[in-house]
Amino acid sequence: MTKKHTLIDLFSGAGGMTLGFADDRFHGGYRSVFAIDNDEPAVDTYNQNFCPDSPHCVAGDIEEWVSQNNIPSADVVIGGPPCQGFSLLNKNRTGDRRRALWEPYMDVVERSGASVFVMENVQGLLKSAEFEDITRRALELGFDMLSPAVLNMADYGVPQTRKRAIAIGVRVSDFGRNLLPTFPPRATHGVGGDGVSTLPWLTVRDAIGDLPSRTSGIEINPGKKPPLDLHFGRTPTDVSKERYRAVPPGGNRFDLQKNRPDITPGCWIRKTSGGTDLFGRLWWDRPSVTIRTEFFKPEKGRYLHPDEHRPISHREAARLMTFPDEFMFSGTKIQVAKQIGNAVPPVFAHALATFVDELLSHRVAKRANKKRAAQVA
What we know:
The protein is an alpha/beta fold. The chain folds into two domains: about 5-190 and about 345-375, Rossmann fold, CATH 3.40.50; about 205-340, Alpha-Beta Complex (DNA Methylase, Chain A, domain 2). About 35% of the residues lie in helices and about 10% in strands. The chain has 13 helices and ten strands. It has helices spanning about 15-20, 40-50, 60-70, 100-110, 130-140, 170-175, 205-210, 240-245, 255-260, 265-270, 315-320, 335-340, 345-375; strands at about 5-10, 30-35, 55-60, 75-80, 115-120, 145, 150, 165-170, 190, 200. Strands 1, 2, 3, 4, 5, 6, 7 and 8 form an eight-stranded mixed β-sheet that branches. It has a two-stranded parallel sheet with strand order 9-10. α4 links the parallel β4 and β5. α1 (about 15-20) crosses α13 (about 345-375).
């Protein structure tokens, strides 16, 4: 049996990234040895899915934990320091403490002896002064940074046009400088596909088209088998229902204003530009927009069902994030929504895991060559 690479997941959330690396339904070539997050329900989700008999995902502050505990050795460290500090949605970003959480991340990279680290974050990371500091610290620790890139997850089989920055560091002493594959990995999907090297982007229909058009109840229902346990709705007001009906397929708040100005919020009427996804309806035959933590609120984005007069359900959001129906979430419906929206889609993590596996094959070859050379000498 092939030995699995060991894995540490920092800021793990529910474990979407670990799922893509360590679960046999995705890559499966890795074994998680430690994870940490400050969201207790997410930690419960992680432990029940990956290590129910001997939980090793810790709930706590990473800086405090790292300063007081030993770090297990690992081949790979993955994870993304909380992204809001870099996000374009966060206009007042100066002095945001979350921008400095890359420091304990890099402490773990150093103390675990990892050969590779993978950092995922919003696009703003790569243009931030903090990324210059991250790169400088990586070089001090003996890592080279592969060319960082902003990747569209739809290009790797996720039914969602979710763009994220990915930065990968490799420990030079484990690899040398001339043997490594280039980053990013080749896209597997594209708009329409080319019929040869790429498949068409997956769509909303591919992800949720088989689910019942109507939801059931307004709470998580553990008495129902997946996928129906998370296929619940809300209790919108009569005005909200009328607003939903006023938005045509692919429409948004501007269509609401055109069709029903009498029930359009005044702030939207006064704001005549921007926000084309607000109160928007998804298209069946396109990928979804980015799923965020409040996908159940249409006023937060393009989260209306393609033709039903309701926002998407938790199960539909989880499907668009590529979580298997059998993946078990812990917590209230608000806590589960946060876990879904904050996750790295496991199908995309699988693509990263495959690339890192190729990197590590070069590490193994280099070490084997060193051993043979020593034996000859």
